[in-house]
Amino acid sequence: MKRSFITEIKGEEEAVLLKGWIYKIKKFKTFAFVSLRDKTGVVQLLLEDLDALENLKTEMAIEVMGVPVKNEKAEGGIEIHIKDLSIIGNVYYDLLPFSINQKKVNTSLEMELDHRYISLRRPDRRAIFKVQEEIVTAFRDYFKGQGFSEIHTPKIIASGTEGGSELFTVNYFDTRAFLAQSPQFYKQMMVGAGFESVFEIGHAYRAELHNTWRHLNEYVSLDVETGFIQDEEDLMNIQQQFIQHLFQHLKSSCEKELKMYALELPEIQEIPRIPLFEAQRILLEVYDKKSPVGNLDAEGEILFSKYVKEKYNSDFVFLTKYPAVKRPMYTMPDEVHEGMTKSFDLIYKGLEITTGGQRIHDYEMLKENIVKFGGNPEDFGFYVESFKYGMPPHGGFAMGLERLTMKILELQNIREATLLPRDMGRITP
Ligand code: AMO
């Protein structure tokens, strides 16, 4: 008999074969209800042989043959009357590390992460990664649909791209190498190599000494880079259109998951574009909040999002025209606003989820800018060389997958949106 999945059962079948884990056991005088969970959902099984119950424990893997019967009172409106049940994956515990079948979570995030193989069995935890998977699907589908090519660039690299202090070093035979902070140089290089428009879904590594609710030391970067642009406005248009596509996609592919988190995604209208200096001025005037030079701090991002929500009814805001001193050396200066750049961040519900901008594409200008930043163009070897051969005007951006997931689902900590987080205190499981 072919296996059926729980949400496929119509209630009209003569018999079904189900496989999954025991989610809950509820014993009555003459029968028991055993809830079975598979990757699609949970169904109630009616067990009349109480002797068989003796051998059952929650979270065992079992196989059940039974007859579906409609029952309004059961979850999903169907229950299965068991004809045959066998244990196919035994358990070896006295007590689970924490219960996973109660509405209320009775453990800490750290405990959940230590026992990821158990905590992910909670349907609401599993839902986070369904949403994450669909974000990736939407990203890939959208950019492929727009004629972008998917690339895979090395994660073991010879030099940093975003500033030297945040690099993990690795021994690469008899030389020192680094883990990539970003595919920045390679994605630009591929635009120039004739791909024109590329995207990458890959890991990025940051040796940042930040142990906060929004930092990871390893995260998934959704990168985009495209050539022959006019300016950074083109890039913000692309980012906005992707967000619009993403929300549409999630509404249809994650209806159940969004409901679990009591969320309704809004239609995305025009995302406001506000220069950073203007945001800093507003923060000072409206909230008496001072900002660090050339940026907003975490509190500033939260307060400014609140302001934008009230004024523009938008959960998103682009901050534009970051000062050159606060952006990497590849960032295109703004020809109108002295000292500023054609770069931007996208803030979503109080958190930066994207950085992007137009890049310097002229070989001589890039070399000059590297020197201005106190560097030596020769240290950038292949990267600088690749600009000698007709590099078109180009730019791009990168979104942090975990940050995006976290904010869409309104989670409190980025680790909740990370399958197996790597942070300053965690390198297992
Ligand atoms: P940036 O360094 O701002 O830009 O990173 C882009 C986006 O990646 C995510 N991110 C992180 N997520 C979790 N933990 C971290 N430690 C972390 N660091 C970054 C954020 C951030 O907005 N090369 C540029 C992008 C570009 O211009 O194309 C870059 O890497 O969501």
Major sheet size, sense and barrel closure: 8 strands, mixed
Ligands, ions, cofactors: aspartyl-adenosine-5'-monophosphate
State the strand order across the main sheet.
Answer: 6-10-11-16-15-14-13-12
Radius of gyration: 26 Å
CATH homologous group name of the largest domain: Bira Bifunctional Protein, Domain 2
Instruction: Briefly note the structural class of the backbone.
Output: alpha+beta
Give the proportion of residues in helices: 25-40%
Total number of β-strand segments? 16
Q: Which fold name is given in CATH as the topology of the largest domain?
A: BirA Bifunctional Protein, domain 2
CATH architecture of the largest domain: 2-Layer Sandwich
Overall 3D shape:
elongated
The total domain count is 2
Determine the number of helices (DSSP H or I, runs of at least 4 residues). Answer: 12
CATH class of the largest domain: Alpha Beta
Q: Approximately what portion of the residues adopt beta-strand conformation?
A: 15-25%
Give me the strand/helix succession. EEEHEEHHHEEEEHEEHHEHHEEEHHEH
Mean of pLDDT: 96
Termini Cα gap: 37 Å
Describe the structure.
The protein has twelve helices and 16 strands. The chain has two domains: 6-89, Nucleic acid-binding proteins (OB fold (Dihydrolipoamide Acetyltransferase, E2P), Beta Barrel); 123-417, Bira Bifunctional Protein, Domain 2 (BirA Bifunctional Protein, domain 2, 2-Layer Sandwich). The protein is α+β, with helices and mostly antiparallel strands and 429 residues long. The chain has an eight-stranded mixed beta sheet with strand order 6-10-11-16-15-14-13-12. The protein has a five-stranded mixed barrel with strand order 1-2-3-5-4. The protein has helices at 50-53, 109-114, 116-119, 123-145, 184-195, 232-253, 255-260, 276-287, 298-312, 363-372, 381-385, 401-408, and strands at residues 16-27, 32-37, 42-47, 61-70, 78-89, 149-150, 156-157, 169-172, 175-179, 197-205, 218-227, 273-275, 316-320, 343-348, 351-358, 394-400. The site of aspartyl-adenosine-5'-monophosphate (AMO) has 22 residues, from strand 11, strand 15, strand 16 and helix 12. L-aspartate binds at residues 162, 206, 355, 359.
